[in-house]
Amino acid sequence: KAELDLNLGFAKLVDKNILIDNDKVLLNKCFDKNNGHYYSLPGGGQDKYESIYDAVIRECKEETGYNVIPERFCGICEEICDNEETREFYSQYAHKLYHIYICKLANSEIDKPTSIDDMQEESQWIDIEELNNIENIRLIYPKETNVDKSKSSALYIQLDNDIVKEVQTYELLS
User: Fold this and answer.
1) With contact defined as beta carbons under 8 Å apart, do 128 and 24 qualify?
2) Which end of the chain is less crowded, N or C, counting CB atoms within 10 A of the terminal residue's CB?
3) Measured CA distances, 141 to 29, 94, 113, 116 (Å)
4) Which distant-in-sequence residues (6+ apart) come within 8 Å of 132 by Cβ?
5) Can you tell me the distance from the alpha carbon of 50 to that of 40, in angstroms, rounded to the nearest whole number?
6) What does the alpha-carbon distance between residue 155 and residue 12 come to, in Å, rounded to a whole number?
7) Which helix (H) or strand (E) holds 59?
8) For residues 49 and 162, which has the higher predicted lDDT (pLDDT)?
9) pLDDT tens, 96-151?
């Protein structure tokens, strides 16, 4: 009996997690040869038959070592890779639909990350006031930008007395 692959020909479902604690946001510091260093939100692919809620918890634990509680869904972002070579060899990653969640720490314990992405170097708590000073922060992984290296994604978080009031993501084009 053949199994139906729900991601075949459709967007891969991915979670991204905005984890804020004591006026700091947790970001993964990453590196790849085409884009250099950049920062990305923790998160990753949803497993077959796994709820997106459970994927948020699992991915954050695997990549950062932190136990989190997803508090609320805050946005969705679609990424479609236009590089034909990437589409051919990495078809499962060429079209992604990111579900973005606001999370909080479940406790203060941290374990060693168990499954970091190939490009991830470490997780860092970044002061929210310093986010504007980081040159290469991305909500999602870098797009193929062989021609125009100025393309990137941006993240905006509005806080009011330590309560997240608004989260916006948008693409910057020069």
Assistant:
1) yes
2) N
3) 11, 11, 19, 14
4) none
5) 23
6) 21
7) helix 52-64
8) 49
9) 888 889 899 999 899 999 998 888 999 999 888 787 777 776 654 443 334 343 34
Question: Is 136 in contact with 35 (CB distance < 8 Å)?
Answer: yes
> How far apart are alpha carbons 34 and 150 in whole angstroms?
12
What is the rounded CA–CA span in Å between residue 126 and residue 121?
A: 15
C-alpha closest to that of 106 among 16, 14, 17, 39: 17
Radius of gyration of the chain (CA): 16
User: Is a pLDDT exceeding 80 seen at residue 21?
Assistant: yes
Over the stretch 55-106, which tens digit does the pLDDT of each residue have? Answer: 999 999 999 999 999 998 887 777 777 778 878 887 777 788 888 898 999 9
Flag whether pLDDT at 165 surpasses 60: no
b/e 73-94 (16+ beta carbons within 10 angstroms → b): ebbebebebeeeeeeeeeeeeb
Distance CA 117, CA 72 (A): 25
Burial (0-12, 13-18, 19+ Cβ within 10 Å), 132 = exposed
Helix (H) or strand (E) holding 77: strand 66-80
